[in-house]
Amino acid sequence: xxxxxxxxxxxxxxxxxxxxxxxxxxxxxxxxxxxxxxxxxxxxxxxxxxxxxxxxxxxxxxxxxxxxxxxxxxxxxxxxxxxxxxxx
Length: 88
Ligand SMILES: [Zn+2]
Fold this sequence. Notes:
Layout: H1 3-6, E1 12-20, E2 27-35, E3 48-50, E4 56-57, E5 64-68, E6 82-84
Antiparallel strand pairs: 1-2, 2-5, 3-6, 4-5
The site of zinc ion has 7 residues, from loops.
């Protein structure tokens, strides 16, 4: 059993960044994090890529991107984005 598998990962620090998407009103909350005790990075799960419709994760799972708008705003951009299937 590795040292990180014995860590309860209860002291996790997340980094949040609010990014804009082109010239639309869409923003993305970018999330990454790591355990303060064992320094292991958080690995997010989900479809890989970037989409205005749903949350996605980077290829290595270290970053998640959650699309958002504010209040009652409707997304004023096109449904652009991409997802990738990872073959393992
Ligand atoms: Zn840990």
